[in-house]
Design brief:
three-stranded antiparallel β-sheet, 4 helices
């Protein structure tokens, strides 16, 4: 269930991610203008089950070539430390890319739904 506390937490992350992207990774697409997906079905099911119970999971593909980014969603949700202690570093590591424990893909274009799970 989404609560006012979880909405505040999500908003803090999105503000931090957008600020870091604008300051250091301006060529990458903004999360605010993207569709986000998971690279792995198990990760999509984990997200649904832990973050959005009762919602659908859909398979999709980009319709055409578009700006994209592969980041590690675990950086946004894995720490138990106070947010202020790690948010800037985690946001920078998210945009830097590289290896990902739970890869999330951002697409700044149209997608086609291919399956509904």
């Amino acid at each position: 269930m989404i609560t006012s506390d979880s909405i505040a937490h999500i908003l803090m992350w999105e503000v931090a991610l957008e600020a870091v992207r604008r300051a250091a990774y301006g060529s990458l697409p903004s999360r605010l203008d993207c569709v986000f997906t998971f690279e792995d079905m198990a990760d999509a099911l984990w997200f649904r089950d832990t973050k959005r119970p009762g919602h659908l999971v859909v398979g999709c593909e980009p319709v055409d070539s578009c700006a994209s980014h592969r980041g590690d969603f675990n950086l946004l949700s894995g720490s138990q430390a106070p947010l202020v202690d790690h948010i800037a570093d985690a946001a920078n590591r998210y945009w830097a890319g590289g290896s990902a424990v739970r890869a999330e893909l951002l697409f700044a274009g149209s997608i086609e739904v291919t399956h509904i799970f």
